[in-house]
Amino acid sequence: MSESPIFAKTYDLIQWLVPKSSKFSRQYRFSLALPILEHAFALQRNLVQAAKAGDKAEAARHLKEADVELTLLRYKIRLCRDLNMLQLGSYEHASRLIDEIGRLLGGWQKKIGIQGA
Length: 117
Hints:
Blueprint: H1 5-22, H2 26-51, H3 56-82, H4 88-112
Helix pairs in contact: 1-2, 1-4, 2-3, 3-4
């Protein structure tokens, strides 16, 4: 599981987000920094649960939940850029990681046969 690229990329994203979000101003600490970290950790949790799922239906459910968390994370990161809380380079880095995780997640969903993946 830990050798899988999606787990490595998710870990890299979290490792980047934790110190970055701690630098958010007090004004946005609870409205954006905390939810961003919660979505990132929920994404990671759902991926682990999908990998350890007992059957395909359970794995599919966790992958769909991971997809929702990734989408919410993507929107909040974009909002941070729009509010000038992230510089363009930081936003590009986060976007690349999120896009790559999204492609890997879509491939996993397709592999187990989730429609719409």
